[in-house]
Structure formats: C-alpha cells, structure tokens
Amino acid sequence: MTVGGVGGELPTDCDYRFEYHMSIIGAGQSIEVWGGLLQSEYTAYYMGSMLAQNNPCPGSDWVLDVEITKEDEDVFQTVEHNSESWGDIGARIEEFERSHPVPPRGPTLHVSQSRDYVSPLEEERTLDIKIDVTNCRGEPVYYASRGQRVVLPKKTERGEIEPTPGFNQNHLVADDHIVLIIVRPEGASATYTLKKGIHFVPQNRGFVIYTLGKYDKTLTAGLNFIIPFVQTVAADRNLKEQSLVLIG
Q: What is the helix (H) or strand (E) element at residue 75, kind and residue range?
C-alpha cells in the first residue's frame, strides 16, 4: 500500500492520497482599534487534511475522513495536533477496505475453464469461463451493492461470449462487450460458444468449399462442419431448377 501527500498536482501512482491545506485566520475577541474598525485579538493557524482513495475505476474517489485543526497560534503545534488527530492511518484504511471492498487494492484476476477445448461437435461447442477477483491479501472481492466489474468482449474471432445463464450474478450487455458484476463470493461466469467452423446450409442451396485455395466439395442442405482457416466458403449456389428459354 502506498499513501501520497499532496502539495500540488494529485498523485496517480499511489493507492491513497493525503491532502492538506493551511490558512492564517483571525482568532479570539474582536477589538475595536480605530473608528469602528475591528481587529482580531491574535493570529492563528487553520489546517484541514483529508485522506482519500485513488479510485482506479471510473467514478468518484472515496473520501475516508477529514480532520480540522484551528485557532492554534503556533504553526508547528497546528501541524502536530492535526497529525495526532488521525491516529493510526493504516488502521483507518483497513477498516475502510473491509466496509468498501470495491475497487480492491492490488487486484488479481483468476480465470478457469470448464474444459480445455471446444470443437464443432454439438456437445463440445460451448464452455464456461469462471472468473474470480482477489485483493492484495488474497481475499475474494465482491460487493452486494456495487459489485466488482469484469469486462469481456462480446465476440471473438471464432465465437461469442455471453453471461452464463442461471449463474447468480449481475451483468450488462452492450453492442461489443459484456460486463459481469461480481456480487457474491462465488465470482462471475461467462459462456463461450464456438460459431465459426459451423455452417447451416439452407434447402436448395449449395456452399462451395475451398481447402487451401483449391476446390474441395459442395455442402448441401443441413448442418455441416468445416475446418477454420484451412477451409473457406467460396460461393453460395442456388440449386433450384431453373428454366431456360431458347430462341432459335
């Protein structure tokens, strides 16, 4: 964990930032000095400090706490008193992370598959992708109210990905990606389905197949399989009988 102090630009390479500012203020009784003009009894220092999380995800940063010290005549005592008011900053951060697990500090993504491969066979066309996120302490990351988000592409070169039907998770589906939202310790799950390599040929049509650039065969109506990248559909032929009128 890193905590950065702020004097100018906000740091972006740390987990938390500690911001502070100091002002000179008038304090004590108001004393009339001349012609109704009032003057403060003495000059004091005002210091405010804030501990906030640098949120790596889109959205506002979390403010953990704010401490204010004012009306202290000694600048060094002002700083000392403000620092003492924080107590154990590390303990405050740990308490915050227990109640606000998302976004996690030092996240690690764990991915596993229900099997090692997919194939054009009907029973082997899909597999489930299990996704878990842990924090820097190895604890599973989930949050019932906000959730830990994992973004996946909706389509790949050879298939499509969708939220696993029936798996207890929240999700969003856009045109080109899906967002899985982890709200339980069981993590998230997506289902991959192989699409390319499978062709459904309509009735009265024929798909001309080339293998490595040479004519191989013509697929007829029904479910057919081809080898991706090696075999390609070169043409779609209409096999219906057509009458030709010859004029002679």
A: helix 75-86
